[in-house]
Amino acid sequence: MPCCCRYTGGRGQEASGQQYGEEFGKINLLRKVPAMKDGDFTLAESIAILLYLCRKYQTPDHWYPEDPIKRARVDEYLSWQHSAMRAHAAKMFWFRLMIPVITGEDVPKPKMDSAMEDLNNTLQLFEDKFLQDHPFIVGDEISLADVVAIVEIMQPLGSGLDVFEGRPKVAAWRDRVRNKIGPKLFDEAHNDILNARNLPDTFEKNGMLDFLKPKIHKLFN
């Protein structure tokens, strides 16, 4: 299905600070990724963008089902993940990689242990509540819920933490999502996050280290 939208996004781009550039600011004043430009229409926030694309381009029903119960299950996960999976997976990525890179200091062990506990509890909830014994979150077919979930769950891998180890059910679900999306596209989409350890070189080249350091100190001190 053709799409004329311009999409700017990815956690690798966010981590490298591209959202603070002048060009990005013309698309999204919120300075967050992802962002989208469709003709003269611009849109921020990943969930809003995904739903817009589904509705405008009439994507196959399984992505955002017309069936009210299935759609409610997708909406349920999309509503939950903001303050749960997204928050805790992203925190682990920042605690283990980004903060040490930017500040030159490790996160204190009590904070790290607490963040790890939150992530483990969230992954267990994901397994017990959302995945259960289904191939995908909504049942037998992949949906937007799976796409949003895998993006967040892959984040800690960028910091060297394999959250799939010891979780065979979640690992098998990841493999099914990868196969449905297509291995090549899946791997391309996660290339930046899986190579996030190269960010120190990127920061050195683009001067973002000095820009980000006071922001991080303000947040965590």
TrEMBL record:
Residues 1-61 form the GST N-terminal domain. Signal peptide: none annotated. Keywords: Cytoplasm, Transferase. One of its GO terms (cellular component) is cytoplasm. It holds the Pfam family GST_N. Gene3D superfamilies: 1.20.1050.10, Glutaredoxin (3.40.30.10). InterPro entries: Glutathione-S-Trfase_C-like, Glutathione-S-Trfase_C_sf, Glutathione_S-Trfase, Glutathione_S-Trfase_N, GST_C, GST_C_Theta, GST_Theta, Thioredoxin-like_sf. It catalyses: RX + glutathione = an S-substituted glutathione + a halide anion + H(+). The keyword Transport does not apply. One of its GO terms (molecular function) is glutathione transferase activity. Homodimer. This is glutathione transferase.
